[in-house]
């Protein structure tokens, strides 16, 4: 019985030494664990980065909605010559959208509003410092009912 065992073992060892494919698989078992660890870390970083990119898009939507709403509200107040309430309305809209107002510029023809929001990233803030501010700018052209476009200039004359 021991003789049969030795023959079987000797036969398996000889086959193992002669077949190179089996030998390569036996040598690469440690490499597979390192490769698996590397791939796991890569996909973990990729997964966290996807959440950061979503945070970026959400912040962009908030700032864009706030700047558009403030610009339109300011243009409407200019249309009714109510310049005093522009800052009050702009602050209210920016608070509703969790944004801050960077600048408001207006004249007779247009309104330009820039809003800003700080984004709280999960991963990118650990790598890149001071990169978490998102800005959005909106520009609205004010069209008055007495503009030449409506052909009312001959009957109405206003000063701003």
Protein topology:
Layout: H1 2-18, H2 20-27, H3 29-79, H4 86-96, E1 100-106, E2 110-118, H5 124-127, E3 133-141
Antiparallel strand pairs: 1-2, 2-3
Portion of residues in beta strands equals 15-25%
If you average the pLDDT, what whole number results? Answer: 77
Helical content stands at 55-70%
Radius of gyration: 34 Å
Q: Strand sequence of the main sheet, in spatial order?
A: 1-2-3
Low-confidence parts = none
Shape descriptor: rod-shaped
What is the helix tally?
Answer: 5
Based on DSSP secondary structure assignment, what is the total number of beta strands? 3
Distance between the termini: 113 Å
Helix/strand/pairing class, anyone? Answer: alpha+beta
Series of secondary-structure elements, N-terminal to C-terminal = HHHHEEHE
Biggest beta-sheet profile: 3 strands, antiparallel
Can you put this structure into words, describing what you see?
- The protein has 160 residues and is α+β, with helices and mostly antiparallel strands.
- The chain has a domain of 99 residues.
- It is built from 5 helices and 3 strands; from the N terminus they run H-H-H-H-E-E-H-E.
- Strands 1-2-3 form a 3-stranded antiparallel beta sheet.
- The relative contact order is 0.11.
- The model has no long low-confidence stretch (mean pLDDT 77).
